[in-house]
Design a protein that fits this description.
The protein is mostly helical and 57 residues long. It has three helices and no strands. The protein is elongated.
């Protein structure tokens, strides 16, 4: 199989209905908040964390 065919397969897009897209967006933001929410809250408050801040810089 050629590289071109592999690339074509990986670039197939699908269009989601608005309701499903919005639900997927909300779920993604909830997962993201679970991963970096505390970092974002500390950053807004101006509170430093030596390890977490290092990972984001």
């Amino acid at each position: 199989m050629s590289l071109h065919n592999d690339l074509d397969h990986s670039l197939q897009l699908r269009v989601l209905p608005t309701v499903k897209r919005q639900a997927a967006t909300r779920a993604h933001l909830e997962r993201l908040d679970g991963l970096i929410g505390q970092y974002r809250e500390r950053r807004v408050a101006g509170t430093a964390h030596p390890v977490t801040d290092f990972l984001f810089t």
